[in-house]
Amino acid sequence: MLCWAYNDLTQMLTLDTATMEFSVAELPRCVKALDCSFVVGETINGTPCVVYTMKFRVCLFLQTLDGDGVKRWARDKATSLDPQLDGVLGKLKGRYSELKVVAVRDGFAYLATSMKYRSDMIPSWVLSLCLETMQLEKMFQRPYECCVHPYVMSWPLSLVGNYGCFALRDGP
After folding, report:
1. Where are the domains of the chain?
2. 127 near 113, Cβ under 8 Å?
3. Residues in contact with 45: Cβ distance below 8 Å, sequence separation at least 6, in sequence order
4. Residues of the chain predicted below pLDDT 50
5. What is the pLDDT of residue 132?
C-alpha cells in the first residue's frame, strides 16, 4: 500500500498495490490545524497511518473501521522523545529545536533533527522510530540540513541465501 498527502494536505490518496485501486480519505483535521510536521504512510501490517511531530513529541494516528464500517482516524500513540533523544544524541540534543518527519514506511517513521533557524554549520541527524515499540535509533548524520527521501528495496537474490562457498558449516 502506498499513501500520499494531497489537496492542500487535507486528504490522503492511497494505492492498494495488491488490487491496483486508488482510494481517497480525509486526513485528521488536527494535523492541518496544528501546523506541524507530518507524513502519511503505513504500519508494518499495511494499515494507513499519519505520524506528526511537534518539537520533540511524536503522535501516531491509525485509520480504523468503526462499528458502521466507516473509516475513521484514531490516535494510537503519543509520546515525548526527549528521554530517548538524550540517550541517542547525548549532549548534541541541545543543538536542535525540533524533529521533523521525513517518511513513514513499513512501520517505521524516519525523523530528522532540525533547528528553528537553519544553519549549514551544524550537521543534522536522521533517526528511525519503530511505530510498534516507539523505540528510537540513530541512523546517520547528514552534513547539512536538506531533504532526505529514504529508499527501501529488497535484498538482491544473490545476497538472500547462504549458498556455495558462503554456506554456514556445522563445525570445523
Report:
1. 2-166
2. yes
3. 107
4. none
5. 92
In whole angstroms, give the CA distance from residue 148 to residue 135. 21
Question: Both ends of the chain: CA-CA distance in Å?
Answer: 46
For 67, the grid coordinates are 462499528
d(CA 79, CA 10): 24
100 and 37 Cβ atoms separated by less than 8 Å = yes
pTM: 0.75
What mean pLDDT, rounded, does the chain reach? Answer: 79
100-109: b (≥16 Cβ within 10 Å) or e:
bbbbbbebbb
* 148-172 residues labelled b (16+ CB within 10 A) or e (exposed): eeeeeeeeeeeeeeeeeeeeeeeee
Q: Which residue(s) pair with 128 in the sheet?
A: 110, 137
Contact criterion met (CB below 8 Å) for 47 and 3: no
Would you tell me how many other CB atoms lie within 10 Å of the CB of residue 6? 12
Backbone angles phi, psi at 29, to 5 degrees: -60, -35
Distance CA 150, CA 142 (A): 13
Backbone angles phi, psi at 28, to 5 degrees: -55, 135
